[in-house]
Amino acid sequence: MSKPILYGADYSVYVRIARMTLEEKGVDYELVPLDIFAAEGVPAWYLEHHPFGRIPAFEHDGFRLFETSAIARYVDEAFDGPALQPADPRGRARMGQIVGLLDAYAYRAMVWDVAVERLEKAAPDEALIARGISQAETVLRTLVSLKIPGPWLLGDQLTLADLHAASIISYFLKVAEGQKLLARFSDLRDWWDRIVRRASFSNG
Length: 204
Known about the structure:
Layout (H helix, E strand, L loop, with lengths): L4 E4 L4 H13 L4 E4 L23 E4 L2 E4 L1 H11 L10 H32 L5 H21 L13 H13 L3 H7 L3 H10 L3 H5 L1
Parallel strand pairs: 1-2
Antiparallel strand pairs: 1-3, 3-4
Helix pairs in contact: 1-2, 1-5, 3-4, 3-5, 4-6
């Protein structure tokens, strides 16, 4: 089997999720750098890999995928290494619920409305940031309510939900507002202290 290829950029939250998944499985892969925000735009050849010109995209032995959740699940099931999805239906459903809520309610608020707005805008929109913080608080409170006792979000097993959350929250913590908010949730703060020590977090 050939080495899988991941197309994307270091700055991307979703590329990092895919990379962390590959790292957790111990998969040797090739990262093909692709900056979708480059002045010349998305290369025409890349639209064969992702028709919407987003990142990441993935290829393995001629099999192509886009959408991070699909890539992560494929990597978990196609390669040897520790299982990153619960074996029981309810556990898998809870994992899917957490990943879905992060995509739907956390990514835009935490990454774009708070972190990017604060870090990259000369005159940040404070009202937008405030709304993002409010949404982020609801997200973190909901994660606490869904978290199963144990080191990880679903208890004793590290899953794709942890990798998804780690990548999004890491961007949120680039700003003081994010750090201050996470500090209010002790269960998640302890979870964060554990996830940042994993090699996949450093290498992903």
